[in-house]
Protein 1
Amino acid sequence: MTGPNDIDAIRAAFQTDLAAVANEQDLQTVRDRYLGRKQGAVAALMKSMADAPPADRPAIGKSANLLKREIDLALATRKETLEASTRPAGSVDVTLPGREMPFGRRHPLTLIREQVESIFGTMGFEILQGPQVEDDYHNFEALNMPPDHPARDMQDTFYLDRPMPGVDRTASTQPATLLRTHTSGMQIRYMENHQPPVRIIAPGLVYRRDTPDLTHSPMFLQVEGLLVDDGITMADLKGTLVSFLQAFFDTDIRVMFRPSFFPYTEPSAEVFISCVFCGGDGCPVCKKTGWLEILGCGMVHPAVFEAVGYDPERYTGWAFGLGIDRVALLKHRVEDIRLFYDNDLRLLEQFPH
Ligand code: DAH
């Protein structure tokens, strides 16, 4: 007859046997004695249940199962302490799985910038870095935008030394400092210190007082391009940009140049690519036009050459400004520019290391 007393007796006997365990072999002996499928005490207990009155069987079965789990756990714990005590103090358990190191990765915009740099790099362009805190002269004035030029309004500016209301900044003897609104100032900075031929790109962060929305962020990335030499024409500009865009988007996209205006280029153009979403058929992203605008460009204005001391009668050149965020959005089909600046790992982890 099986009863609670048998269970208690087995538990007590197990405790005594367990306390006497000195090594792995003892442990195995105890395991066989209590949990062995055929000879084990718990197995015998289960078998003897058949003789118990049917009404008692569920309760006995339950306690027998509990006892089995209890013994299992106690054996596992003893096994661990045994293993720990056989290891020399301070040694490392080389069988433990390694701890995974969290990997950082480059930001998707960094990857795009590096790709732009690599394509222009193979075309022989030098890659420049420039200051994000810029002065009025390089950001505007030398680019043919004198203080009251209306084109300044196209780029709402963060001034770092905004004068008191009512004070005329243009009358100040101190040039204003600001967060650069575009990378175009790098054209001036480079030409001030180098003679033609010029072949540079200047990627970097720029800032504008824009309210963030799907397509605007107050901080974003641009890349400026500038090429100056004897006899440079708009055909050079077109050929370079078409080659770049086809390499970058890695498909046979079509490129369209449309007349535009920038104070520092004449003539100026806006460049569109056939929509990467619909292939040019028309969709919501391209507003049914089939085209997406991605950069501004043109032939360097003679006034810019004069500002840096180049002879506009001798040299010609072209320049462009491309939105890195813009092409990154198109390439990765991300629909909200703000996602690039949120640092949400769910987005960032989708890009390669
Ligand atoms: N600076 C312009 C912008 O931020 C882009 C641009 C247009 C750059 C024409 C150029 C250029 O160099 O020639 O919108």
Protein 2
Amino acid sequence: MAAPVEIAPGCLWWQGYLDRAAQEQLVAELRDLLAQAPLFTPRMPKTGKPFSVRMSNCGPLGWVSDEAGYRYQPTHPETGQPWPAFPERLLAAWRDLAGTALQPEACLINWYGEGARMGLHQDRDEEEFAAPVLSLSLGDTAVFRIGGRERGDPTRSIRLASGDALLLSGPSRLAFHGVDRVIPGSSTLLKQGGRINLTLRRVHPG
Ligand code: MD3
Ligand code: FE
């Protein structure tokens, strides 16, 4: 495995962590998984304004958002079914890169179609910030931005390409971050284009 680049304190970036064959295998597993737990359109708390990113989850817990608020729950918000199990390849990535003996409890699946983006935010709905978050990117390249713990802190931008892994630990765990845009046609992995981001997370303290 190539050495990671530290793009902000505690934020490690492995370019090309997954080779093409591993990316294709993961996409095939995700196709089956999304047939069980279909993508849903999250809505903003209170206003109900839809996100441009569509989502699903796997693992014991999943992140959902609607008029009632942001939360983790064990079931899909539309089907009421438990989330599917983690694909083995995701657990292997966590073992390789996360640097903790704790198991992940949730994996949020973000799907970016044409024009989808994610505004600058912090991930604070977990009850555990000591554990890292691990992100894997598949499909079209994203222009990803990360700053500091305050919204106004300076930011740095990197392009997350298909197969890249990003670990958010230490000070970067509570950094503001977002996706400014996705570059159409930048990958041949997903036949219909678009981008998938997977984030493995710990929700509760060990
Ligand atoms: C920095 N996802 O799901 S992945 C998210 O590309 C999210 O879909 C983006 O932000 C995406 O919450 C960014 C990289 C990432 C993931 C989680 C983080 C960066 C993070 C948590 C804390 C700090
Ligand atoms: Fe986030």
Protein 3
Amino acid sequence: MLRIGCHLSSSKGYCSMAKNAMLINANTFQYFSRNPRGGNAKEINPKDVEQFLSIAKEQDITPFLAHAPYTLNACSADPKLREFAKNTMADDLQRLECTPGNLYNFHPGSHVKQGIDIGIDLIARMLNDILKPEQTTTVLLETMAGKGSEIGGSFEDLKRILDKIELSGHMGVCLDTCHVWDAGYDIANHLDEVLTEFDTVIGLKRLKAIHLNDSLNPLGAHKDRHARLGEGHIGLDSLKRIINHPALRGLPFYLETPNELDGYAREIKMMREAYK
Ligand code: FE
Ligand code: FE
Ligand code: ZN
């Protein structure tokens, strides 16, 4: 069965997200670990967690993906901002142990004039500080569109970070179809080649999740504007080939398209029908 879900609001807690997932025929979901601009996380309600764990098990809703606030910059030139990113992610990872065995995704960061080598070093240093041997959550680096000084616009960037991680067994990659397209990887016309390149550079065993989005911009635009499936430059046929590719079989797919629940329900239905 296709493992597919979408980005949901976490404001009413875990059970509410599980119920919304069921409502749109999703069997996984993503949410922001806290306000996307950072700030304090909501108190975890043990009753909500307990109920959620039983619903998730019973309905086979798994694994969920908690997305870190996208304003965090693990490789900022400002030590205070780096410290903030580290403390926030460490806190997120600690909280995620209430719901063991899921995924946590973050944007590697922007090196802003420090150069890519320093940026990669700072990101790896942060991860080495916060990863714990006993944690059950897998931390994912997201592939990025390569806007400005963003790190993660190439598979090589991510590989260089992964190579510096001591507890690398806790690390993986989330491939965002809009981002890789904007970064210049032609997943519409050369999907096999792109996945082979991913395998050669990073290794497909590191690939743990897919963000399934169309892109408002052409190949290599370095922009990062998501479109609904079939309403962008990647196109519906290519997205259908992606969910059916043998190398991606079994991975969870998360929609981050501009939609409300009913729009997500339509996209999920469309992808389920296209899944062979
Ligand atoms: Fe993201
Ligand atoms: Fe994404
Ligand atoms: Zn994006």
